[in-house]
Amino acid sequence: MAFNKVVLAGGSGYLGRIVLDHLLTIPTISQLTVLTQSQSVDFPSSPIVNVVSIPSYQDVAALTLALEGHDLLISTLSRVATEGADEALVSAAIKAGVRRYMPSEYSVDVLFPHAIAIAGTTVLAGKIAIAQRLQRLAEEGRIEYTTLVTGAFLDFWLENATPVIVPKSKIITLLDGGEKKMTGVTTSFIAKSIGAIIAMSPEAAKNKRLRIAEVEFTGKALLHTLEEVTESKWTVLERSTDEVFKDGLAAGERGDMRGFYLGNIIKINFDGEGAGYFEEGLQWADGIVERQTLKELAAKSISRVFAV
Ligand SMILES: NC(=O)c1ccc[n+]([C@@H]2O[C@H](COP(=O)([O-])OP(=O)(O)OC[C@H]3O[C@@H](n4cnc5c(N)ncnc54)[C@H](OP(=O)(O)O)[C@@H]3O)[C@@H](O)[C@H]2O)c1
């Protein structure tokens, strides 16, 4: 049985909007329900789209009603929203008889021992609990899951100011000497990967944590690419991932929780210990999902950064 009737939670968000637009291009989807708490978002109008207003992600009865008759629930809720909503969302999906759930993980491999050692009780605790709960529920035969383990969203990291890149000022920090290999994805690659999962036999991705990757690169290769696409020299700073991690801890002590989160996630994603580098992911959906080169995706991001 294919996934024809799909629900998307978080379709108004950064990743969700790209996923929603891609789902609308898949001819086998006959019904697309978008759950939202927002009153002000304009979703695309389409005969297959039904926008359902969710007053609270704690209301299992209302969620169950909204999920009835669907085969696949995809969450692209924000990290914070996911931690509050996931348990009720999955309970409702089970009650409604939804076959498959794709959680809003889209991160480092949160079940990788190094990730657990660094941030298992802090910034990754919520996503780890969700991943473990899903594995348990799948073993009990209550719901299936497919989790996309993506590592870094390169469009996010290339377009927003973080301790790694300040794109508008053309500043890049080479981490650990800039020679460690990294992998990453774009949000459009994730959306197309979800489409590929919908198109494949349901057994192929059943109860799998798929470590996916669009490109492999190093910090130095990224610097070279950014200088090439902007036709200008970038300011280069050098730091170790341990220093960035310590900065994050100091930020946390000052109450700067974004800084705390970034320090942790930069360390886990880019320190070369395997929680954010997925060599096998470079073969994922080869020939099915098109990959951009580092230069192509960097050029798109840079053009968005400097668009007036
Ligand atoms: N690996 C990476 O580099 C990377 C980068 C960015 C994000 N991510 C991950 O990608 C996933 C999606 O993130 P995103 O940045 O796309 O999320 P987002 O845009 O911040 O939020 C997605 C949607 O979640 C809902 N939402 C947000 N805050 C909420 C709250 N406090 N309470 C209830 N609902 C709320 C909203 O939907 P409605 O208003 O429609 O209900 C929103 O549009 C997350 O798991 C995130 O951790 C990964």
Number of helices: 11
CATH class of the largest domain: Alpha Beta
CATH architecture of the largest domain: 3-Layer(aba) Sandwich
Shape: globular
CATH fold-level assignment of the largest domain: Rossmann fold
- Strands, count: 13
Largest sheet: 7 strands, parallel
Mean pLDDT figure: 97
Gyration radius from CA atoms, angstroms: 19 Å
Fourth CATH level, the homologous superfamily of the largest domain: NAD(P)-binding Rossmann-like Domain
Counting structural domains, the number is 2
* Secondary structure: helix percent: 40-55%
Biggest sheet strand line-up:
3-2-1-4-5-6-11
Structural class: alpha/beta
**Secondary-structure element order, as H and E?**
EHEEHEHEHHEEHEEEHEEHEHHH
Note poorly predicted spans.
Answer: none
What is the distance, rounded to the nearest whole angstrom, between the alpha carbons of the first and last residues? Answer: 47 Å
* Share of residues in strands: 15-25%
Distinct ligand kinds: NADP nicotinamide-adenine-dinucleotide phosphate
Protein name: NmrA-like domain-containing protein
Organism: Hyaloscypha variabilis (strain UAMH 11265 / GT02V1 / F)
Domain NmrA-like: 5-247
Keywords: NADP, Oxidoreductase
